[in-house]
Structure formats: structure tokens, C-alpha cells
Amino acid sequence: MRITTPTLLLDKQKTIRNIRRMADKAKQNGVRLRPHFKTHQSAQVGEWFREFGVQAITVSSVRMARYFANHGWKDIMVAFPVNVLEMDAINELAARVNLHLVAVNLDTVTALAQQLRHPVQLSLKIDTGYRRTGILATNYAELDSVVQKIREQDKLQFTGFVVHDGHTYKQNDVYAIQTIYNTSVYQLHLLRERYKSKFPNLQLSIGDTPSCSIIDSLRGVDEIRPGNFVFYDLTQQRIGSCSFDDIAVCMACPVVAKHPERGEIILYGGSVHFSKDVILQEDASSIYGRIVELTPQGWSGPVEGIEVVSLSQEHGVVKASPEQFKKYSVGDLMGVLPVHSCLTANLMQGYLTTEGEQLEHLTGLPYRELVS
Amino acid sequence: MRITTPTLLLDKQKTIRNIRRMADKAKQNGVRLRPHFKTHQSAQVGEWFREFGVQAITVSSVRMARYFANHGWKDIMVAFPVNVLEMDAINELAARVNLHLVAVNLDTVTALAQQLRHPVQLSLKIDTGYRRTGILATNYAELDSVVQKIREQDKLQFTGFVVHDGHTYKQNDVYAIQTIYNTSVYQLHLLRERYKSKFPNLQLSIGDTPSCSIIDSLRGVDEIRPGNFVFYDLTQQRIGSCSFDDIAVCMACPVVAKHPERGEIILYGGSVHFSKDVILQEDASSIYGRIVELTPQGWSGPVEGIEVVSLSQEHGVVKASPEQFKKYSVGDLMGVLPVHSCLTANLMQGYLTTEGEQLEHLTGLPYRELVS
Predict the structure, then answer these.
(1) Which of A232, A254, A273 is the last residue of a domain?
(2) Per the UniProt entry, what are the Gene Ontology biological process annotations, in alphabetical order (chains A, B) (predicted)?
(3) Residue B3 contacts A where some CB pair is shorter than 8 Å
(4) Residues of B numbered 66-125 whose beta carbons fall under 8 angstroms of chain A's beta carbons: which are they?
(5) What is the CATH number of the domain that holds B305?
(6) Can you give the residue range of the structural domain that contains A352?
(7) Mean pLDDT, range A115-128, rounded to an integer
């Protein structure tokens, strides 16, 4: 199959190796793996998780939940604060799958109590340090009132506490990540103790790929919800979550121009393909992708002396050493490891495996309803 | 029609006003308006240009050219360096529309000469200062050899020179933008002189929204190709290309959480909706959107004391003064002016007009072929 435009390649062996490693780690630690499917958003990639015993999944929107429900998934957590405007879609889903929702405040729980027509599992999102959203782990007044409200409602089954420690993304020190993890687990245990007399089976769930990848002993929680690990990317490599060789997706971009006077190569591949996430390097320069050599079986490790240094809407600018510069001609394809695989996959709307199979992505499906 | 998820609102009156203003300016200056459709990528929005006499358009990919060709456009420039890997699709298009291509080097012209089966217009992209791509305006050796190569080919009709002065995006001083424009026009005139004995009708075409919006007298060129002006955005407002009131698209995002202890409101609306373009403010803070009040007819001007300060995949974090904070409740919709309307529209895959009409966007159409 001939590639003529920017294309997101997927190495199925690496992907499955990433899934296996995380599934094995979950099993060794006695925790449930509830992978976050927002990274791949693909029914076919989702199927690859089943052979590792995965039955419960995480998604980040009601639309994504509906998509995976339509592909046979029966136990789905929407790990985003409930959007009360989508109650019709939530009720439709709750009627046919084991739906887990996440609340971050009393208003939402009240709206759910009034409008839900089918039972759902409800977890509380706890903020143990990231400070994006969630109820602060020390805000006992709010926690008590929310828990009390849940208790009064027969359609709300209080399941436990979920955390997303997004601040691990700012680290590249295994001890810092371990400390963040321990701090979260400590706070979650206190919460479980506080409510265990009324709710003896509360589950503790954590979610970020850095913690789940880097920490060997994930004891203290019941469930992990990493997502990015299925593909990894340059951001995760920099954090220390993976090696370059674990990165399972790679862009193939046509070379359209060369500028020898400044050692720059222009790719067909810009911010509408990669997104604009960036890695700030130690020398204060920014990179938008690392270059690899495409091979018949996939791609090599990253090459030194050549990288994507800027992106506009459709253009990527690659800076190359003289040695690297001369390797490429107009009309060649260049391989680029993405900075953030979730956003790149979201824009690319589909995958081509290194074996030549096309895989779908939710965003590539027919024109969605703007409103419901 | 009820909005329940992040939705890109489009004010048709403002859009048409933006189109009219640019069409009037083109007419007053005696230049052809060949608008760039990469900003809206919508067949329906494209139709609005016809009543202003627009017959020739610009696009940034062969796929986009095919889409607008399928919607009746007959004169289409692909303002991106020819990707020689797409020759089959180029030939298919060249058979049915007046196709203009843009070359930046001899290799591409040679490949076109060998593989084109139908005549096309060919312009040379000139680099007059932006330094992204194009042939340097002073590189006469390369220019001469490329022009000679074109001259030898009967399927290549040498049309003229195109420039995209993307460095105007870094300015917010009308004199700087005027100087960039004058510098480009000066260099283009020299090139036209150089080749006029062999090619007496060479056209000069420039393309950036800041120049086309800010400069009153666009004399010296034959054609302008602005795109972003159809919607404008916060980036253009900051440059000085438009007022806030000219911004014709606005995101409507559900409020899902409030954090009074830090004056932050969490929106359902993240980098998969807005993209990650950012405005760095004078105080070194970053903003990802300005907040407006949604009204039955559209939206207000931007409100002071409240703005989007960070984005993750699905979450937007809004920082609000106490006065603004208390205006919003969970379940409300918040209006957000985007930093970069092209990328936001590309992600949102469709529009809802303030009159309730749904408009399509190319990226929202059924799953595209990954390979051709």
C-alpha cells in the first residue's frame, strides 16, 4: 500500500507488547487494569486488550462511551466530570451498559439524582495534588455532604474514589513520581477509612501513565486507568515512562522541499496532523518530533542531528545536520515520532499498521451530530 | 436546538461582513481576491463568497481541492509545495478543474513535467523574508533554471509568483507589516521584470491575513489570498487585523466544575476542541481563549477578569475574578473566543450558526482513505 499523504503508522507488535506489560504489572500487583481508551479511540485497537483479560475500560466523553458500547464493551467509566447537559445520552447508555460516572461536586450529584432513569456507578474524583479538578482530599465538609447525597439516591451506587495525578507529567525523576503516587494513595486510604462503615467496598483508582509505567509496586489501590501507555510518545520517553523503542506510533510525512542554505527540510505534516504539543529541551530549544528511519518492517530508533523544529498548519520544518540533510530527497517519506500520541491520533482520524491494515479512529467516523 | 457538548458557533452576519470587507478592498485596489478556504473548509461557507464575485479559491491540500471541486469550484490553487507522491490525485483534478500548483524547487518541476497528464497553471513560491519555504527571491541561478524547465514543458503554464508573508503574524505594528508588504512587492516586481520578455503576463500573489487586513493600499500585486479573515480570532485581534467584534466563531462549552478556593471554573472543552495555540501576554502569562457572554443572538465582547488559562485533552481551566466566578453555575454554557480559528474549526469538524443551522467541515466527513 502506497503512502502519499501524512499517515499515522502503528506497530501492532509494539502496541501489544505495551498492553501485555501493563496487564502483567496489574496482575502482579493484584489491581484491575481499566485502560483509558482516549489515546487510541479505535474499536480495533480496543479488541487487542481483550486477550489480556481486560473487560472494563475508561473513556473521556459520553460520545466515546457510546462508541465503545456499540463495539461490545459493557463496563465503561467516563473519567471526566459529569456534564449534566448530556443527561439524555447518559440515560441511554446507562440502560444498556454498566456505566461508571465521576462527580466532582454536589450540584452534579443533585442533577444526577433528579434526572437519572437507570442505576449507575458513581465515583468521586479527588484532587490529591494536581489542582485541575476534583474535590480536595482534605475538604471533608464537601465530601461528607456529597457522600450523604449519594447515599440517599437509589440510582447512584457509590463505588469509590478516582484520582488523576497529571502533575507526574511535569516530572522526570522516578523518586518524584513515587512520592506523588504515595501521597495520593495515603490520602485515598484516609478517605476509604472515613466512609467504610457505610460503604465497605469502596474502590481506589488511579490513572496516569507515568505512575503506572514507572512504579513497580502499585499496591494500595484497586484499579489503574492509564491510557497513553498503549502507544507512548516522546513526552513519556522524556518523563521516563518508556524507551524510544516502546513508542508504537510514527508519522510518515512526504518531503516537499529542501533548503540547503539553512539545512532545513520541509515536510507535508503540520499542526493539523501532529497538534502543537512541544518538548522544551534542556538548551531551551523546542522540538515537535524526532526523526526515525522508515524500514520495510516499521522504523528505527531516533536519529541524531535531525528533528522537527517548527510546525504551521500543514508544514513541518525539520532542521538537519549536513550528514542527515543529504539523505533525503523531495518525494521521500520521513518518519516522525510524535510529541503527544493522543492528540496526533485524534487529528489523524485513523491508523495504518506496519502490516498494511487500516484501523479506524472515532474522529474519522461520519459527521457527528453537533447537538443532541 | 440544545447545545450539550463543546460546539463551534458561527455568526453568519459577521462572517459575511468579513467577506464583504475583504471583497470591497480587493475591488478598490483592483486585485483579485482568491480566498484561502483552509480556515473554514466548509462547502456552505464557501457558497457565501460567490455573491461577492469570488470564482477562484486557494486551498492547502489536494484533498481540500478535491472537496471544493466536488462542490462546483473550477479555479483552485493548492498553495502548498507540490507533493509529488500525490500525482495520481493531481492528474485526476487537473482533468476537471483549472488547477494551479505551487512549486519550490527544480526536482518538483521535473517530476511534474514527467508525470502530468493534463495542463496546470504553475506558480513559483518565493521566499521574501518568512524563511519557511519557497525559492529565495535573490537566488537567480535557481530561479532561472526552474523557469527554463517550466518553459520546456507544454503542460506547465507558468503563471507567476506567490508569497506567504507568515512573519506578519509575529508583528503588532502597522508600520512593520507595511514594511514587510512593501519589501515583498519590491522583490516580486524585480522578478516579474526579469522574466517578462518570455512571460509577459506573470501574476503576483500575496497571501497573509494581517497584510490584507491592515494595509489599505494593496497595489502592486494582482491577487490576494487571505484565509483567516473569514472568521478572524484572538491572534488576529492582537496583531491588529480585526476588532473583537469581527471574530465570527465562538466556542460554547459546558461548565462542569467550579473551584472557589482558587477562582477556577472547569469547562468541557480542551485541546481536542481548541487545539493548543496560545497567546503570550505582556505580563508573560498565557491565555488559550477569552470569555464572552452567550446571548440569544450570538455573543458579547470579551469580558474582563476571566479567561482560559490552561487546556488538557478534554478540560479547559478558566481563571475568574470573584465577580465573574459567581456568574456561572455547573451546567451553564460558557462562550470562548478561540486563539486560532483555523485549528479550532479543523478539530470541531462542523459549525452551528447562531441561527441554528448546522454547517459541515471537511474533517467531519466520512472516514477518509488513509492511502490512495
Answers:
(1) A232
(2) D-serine catabolic process
(3) yes
(4) 80-86, 88-89, 104-105, 107-108, 111
(5) 2.40.37.20
(6) 244-364
(7) 97
